[in-house]
Write a structure and sequence with these properties.
Length: 316
């Protein structure tokens, strides 16, 4: 068990914060003297997310961060608890978003409502909080025992990909329906997801994980309307979260982060696996070329007769 846990800790995880947003805001919070200059930065991120960080010319102490969440943005506002999470995580900071964006927060650099480090962490991980809003709601229900009163959430994250959250009194099941556009990615993903589910059982304290083929959805969502549209995907991977997995604030935050970034984790490792395979193939080809370049062609030997005439031996 100890060896498996050590291997799990060594796996590569993507950080939930956006580094460009972190730099733009961090320099204004921590530089000495304080950096006060106008800016307007637009950044793209994972999950079809866009950020816009702006500081107006006439109010150099005011920073506004807009975020667009792609296809799921409207549903997050309307019925996926996005506004509720915004108010709890960013109290008094929500403002009307710019055109083309779904949410926005604004804060005064000279009159902060929380510690600078805490503010920077929350602002740069706004994508994680908003996309994880339905997960946070379901896990809060599990923690306080009201999970059974929450409905099953079916979220179409993008075409042919979905997220299903089934709260209950004693557990919360989170299911991903995954799809990849390239055939090679689909083949690698099926192997990776199968192995991921198998190896997770060897990690002490990890949530139970299972993988199902696309034509055989998990029991929890098999009867949901529209489930057939995922029949040609890479399959379903399920995580079952129990109260022990969110028993303290650190475990709760880690569970939300891991669940929210799982799709990006899979995409990242598929690309990394393909890169590794290509590097191995290129190295092997280079080795073969070196062997060919160093090869010495056998010279044909000339023979002489007793009279001094030469002739070439006929090849066999």
């Amino acid at each position: 068990m100890a060896g498996s846990a050590k291997r799990a800790e060594g796996m590569i995880f993507l950080k939930p914060q956006n580094m460009i947003v972190e730099e733009a805001i961090g320099t204004r919070l921590f530089d000495d003297p304080p950096r006060r200059e106008p800016c307007e930065i637009t950044v793209s991120d994972f999950d079809d997310v866009r950020f816009k960080v702006s500081v107006p010319v006439d109010k150099l102490n005011m920073v506004t961060v807009n975020i667009s969440l792609g296809a799921v943005g409207a549903r997050l506002r309307e019925d996926l608890y996005g506004n509720e999470i915004m108010e709890s995580v960013y109290p008094g900071m929500s403002v009307e978003p710019d055109s083309g964006f779904d949410f926005a927060i604004s804060f005064d650099l000279d009159n902060l409502t929380m510690e600078p480090n805490e503010l920077l962490t929350k602002v740069t991980t706004i994508r994680r909080y908003l996309l994880g809003a339905p997960i946070i709601k379901a896990l809060n229900g599990l923690k306080d025992g009201t999970g059974s009163a929450l409905p099953t959430m079916n979220i179409e994250m993008r075409q042919s990909e979905g997220l299903f959250i089934k709260p209950a009194a004693d557990r919360c099941t989170v299911i991903y329906a995954l799809q990849f556009t390239e055939e090679t990615d689909r083949a690698v993903a099926r192997v990776m997801l199968t192995q991921f589910a198998k190896e997770s059982s060897k990690v002490n304290g990890a949530p139970p994980c299972s993988y199902s083929e696309a034509r055989n959805p998990p029991m929890e969502i098999r009867d949901l309307p529209g489930i057939d549209k995922y029949a040609h995907g890479c399959g379903f991977i399920s995580f079952v979260i129990f109260a022990s997995h969110i028993s303290d604030p650190e475990k709760f935050e880690k569970s939300v982060t891991m669940l929210t970034t799982f799709r990006n984790y899979i995409h990242y490792h598929i690309k990394a696996s393909k890169t590794y395979l290509h590097m191995r193939m290129r190295k092997k080809v280079q080795g073969w070329l070196q062997v060919l370049n160093r090869a010495v062609h056998e010279q044909e030997k000339e023979a002489k007769t007793a009279s001094g005439k030469t002739f070439k031996r006929a090849s066999k």
